[in-house]
Every structure is written in structure tokens, then in C-alpha cells.
Amino acid sequence: MKITIQEAPKHVNEEVTIGGWLANKRSSGKIAFLQLRDGTGFMQGVVVKSDVSEEVFSEAKNLTQETSLYVTGKIVEDTRSDFGYEMQVSNLEVIHVATDYPITPKNHGTEFLMDHRHLWLRSKKQHAVMKIRNEIIRATYEFFNTNGFVKVDPPILTGASAEGTTELFHTKYFDEEAYLSQSGQLYMEAAAMALGKVFSFGPTFRAEKSKTRRHLIEFWMIEPEMAFMDHEDSLKVQENYVSFIVQSVLENCALELKTLERDISKLENIKAPFPRISYDKAVEFLKEKGFDDIEWGEDFGAPHETAIAESFDKPVFITNYPKDIKAFYMKPDPERSDVVLCADLIAPEGYGEIIGGSQRIDDLELMEQRYKEHGLTGPAYEWYLELRKYGSVPHSGFGLGLERTVAWLSGVEHVRETIPFPRLLNRLYP
Ligand code: 4AD
């Protein structure tokens, strides 16, 4: 019977066949220990000289890294390994011999590994990160589907900018100019007026010249948008959603977290509600901490966010930023027109901002005024005004950056390891 490594626990004491690759190998005179991987997991295969034919034993001893093969044998429990099972190999059949595989079990530099990303993905750590990414995506669909949201797909080719014009990727669209989407939000607002509570999950493109551990040129964003929900309602959805994905990863990715040596005590307490601090208070706090490079009205940089996050053991919302440093669509605080009803959610342990969200302006006149201030004109923007013309309602939404969330939960330093094929300032290949 052909099974996968993931299915091994259900086949203890059975003779099965697994198709896989040789990740690593150790051998003493009479035993060869094969570290096998098959895409679903990693497992040891033990080949004992006295239990197999001479030909099989010699083949096992000569296997090279990343050679593909079928291994047949009995699944047994193995309490010494994290996986908990191994195979007592009785036979093996080589499919394709790999020679001189470039990524050896020794340490390689990051640039080398990034050049070989198409192969690096096979390694145990990268495999674990991709599984955690997948679990966050799965849990996202579960959370929004069970809470009455409808998945809506905004376009990727757009005629207008959603967040600001400096970071847009331009492309030709027959005789017109188009941009790659930097946020689906404007379309999601239209969708919320049609379907109530909606969410999107898609690629996002930003021509940011930032070379930091938190910036990708192409990243994936989850953008919920909710009609009849104010800023406060939205914060509740955000903290419940983030708590849900953290608990889902803890529950369903225990082995992966162990592989990554993630300190799970830092994740176990991530449950709603999350602490909040206003922008005003955050500036005061930073000044008290000795940051003299920040004045009211300026945006926070990574060191500021990290200093704020360090005083909490859960993600923290920084709320009500100055209007002038935020996007044109954010609703002013009715009690103070110099700040807007918005929040950024900062992850603990220095992983930075994972969510940006706000209540949206729902008043037509005010939105028209913002258009004038920001010089937004033309057909690309006109339709958005109509959402305020025909049955406008209070509504809010947010965007969660998938890769920063994966980095935080996996405990990996840099977002380049959280997406299969990262697009960075200096990298378009592989
Ligand atoms: O704060 P941002 O720019 O928000 C928006 O785009 C809103 N339109 C979302 C909405 O309300 N629907 O981006 C949201 C999140 C950030 O908090 C961050 O996690 C991630 O997207 N992000 C990036 N991730 C990786 N690389 C980049 N260059 C990123 N820029 C933003």
C-alpha cells in the first residue's frame, strides 16, 4: 500500500510504501539511517544490513542527497524523534539519482540560499514555515466563513491607487495606464455595500524602496470590510481574528513549531482582548523612553513600534493617528478632527505592524473635500464617490499582512522566508 509520511501514524506495524526523497543520511557499518522527506513530512527510515538483501543495503549506503525513491517497510513507533514514527526498511527502489545537490546540511549564506530558493524550499525549516503559512490561510477562511463574511476577489489590475501614488507599479493596459493593486480596499468597500461583510485574500504590490526584514515588494493581504460596523466593532473583529489564527497554529502545527524551535509560551497567551494605546500616548511614552527623534505628527518607524510593543506581551493597537499621515479615506474622530478613527496592530517580539485598519469616511461632501486635498480626479476614482451617494452607511475594514504574521508565528527573523518565492528590492529570481 502506498501512503504518505503524514499518514504513517495510522499504519503502525503495517508494511507500506512511501515515495520520497533522501534529505540526509547517516550510516554505521551495519545500519543506514535515512532521513526521508515526501512533501507531507520528514521521517527516518532504518536499513539494517542483516534484514535486507545485500543489494538493498549497498544501495541504501550509497544514496545521495535528494535522490528520489520508493521505500517499503514496516512503520513502527519511535519515541526518540519529534515525529514519533519511523520505518524499518525492507526494500527500496531508486527513481532518480541526484548528484551534487548544492544545498548540503552545512550552513550556507543567505544570498546563496535565496539564489537556490527553488531547492531551499525542500529543507525542513522552510517546509515548516510553509505549513504554518498554509494553516494561517486555512484558519482565515474558517474564521471569516463561520462569522458570516463572503469572500470577494478585487481586481489586481487597477486604474487608481488605494494607498498613495509613490509605491505603484505601472503597467500598460492597451492604450491606457494601469497599476498593480496595492490594496483591494476601495473595491471591498463597494463589495461590502452589496454583500454586508466581505473579505479578500490576494497579492499586493508595492514598489517600496525599503530593504528591511519586514518589507516585500509582492505580499499577500487579507482585507475584510464590514458595513454597519464602526471602528470599535472592527477592533473587536481584528483581535478575535488574530487570536483565532494564533490558537489554530498552536493546535495544528505543533510539530512545525518544534522544528522551528519557536518559544510557544510567547504565543499561548495571545487571546482577545488586546491592549490599546492612542497615538498621543504613544508619542509621550516614546519621549519618556528617551526617543528624541519623534514629534507629534510624525509617523513611527520600526524602532518606535518595537519599543511600544516591548511593553506588552500581546499585540497592541496604536489608535487615532494624525489625519495628515494617514490615507485619504479615513474618517476623522468626531471629537477631534486632527486625528482619524484608525489603528495599527503591532505584533510582539519586534515583528512590527501586522494590521492597518480604519473606519471609512461615509459622508459624500467630506470625501469630495479629501479628493480635492489629495488631487484625486478622473474616472478611476468617481465610482468610489458613488458609494457615498446611494445609501451610504458607516463601515470599517482592515488589512492583515500575511507574511509578517507568518514571520511572527514561526519566529523567523525576515519575511523573505515566509513566502515561497519572495520579490525583494534586488530579487526577481528564482
Ligand atoms: O497598512 P496598510 O498599508 O493598509 C492598507 O493597505 C489598507 N488599505 C488595508 C485595509 O484597510 N483594507 O497595509 C496593511 C498590512 C500592514 O499592516 C502589513 O502587515 C502589510 O499589510 N504590509 C506589508 N507586508 C510586507 N511587505 C510590505 N511592503 C508591506 N506593506 C504593508
Automatic annotation (TrEMBL):
GO terms for cellular component: cytoplasm. The keyword Nucleotide-binding applies. Residues 130-430 form the Aminoacyl-transfer RNA synthetases class-II family profile domain. It is found in: Cytoplasm. GO terms for molecular function: asparagine-tRNA ligase activity; ATP binding; catalytic activity, acting on a protein; nucleic acid binding; transferase activity. It catalyses: tRNA(Asn) + L-asparagine + ATP = L-asparaginyl-tRNA(Asn) + AMP + diphosphate + H(+). CDD domains: AsnRS_cyto_like_N, AsxRS_core. PROSITE patterns: AA_TRNA_LIGASE_II. Its EC number is 6.1.1.22. Coiled coil: none annotated. GO terms for biological process: asparaginyl-tRNA aminoacylation. It is an enzyme of class 6 (ligase). Transmembrane segments: none annotated. It comes from the Bacteria. PANTHER family: ASPARAGINE--TRNA LIGASE, MITOCHONDRIAL-RELATED (PTHR22594:SF34), ASPARTYL/LYSYL-TRNA SYNTHETASE (PTHR22594). Homodimer. This is Asparagine--tRNA ligase. It comes from Oceanobacillus sojae.
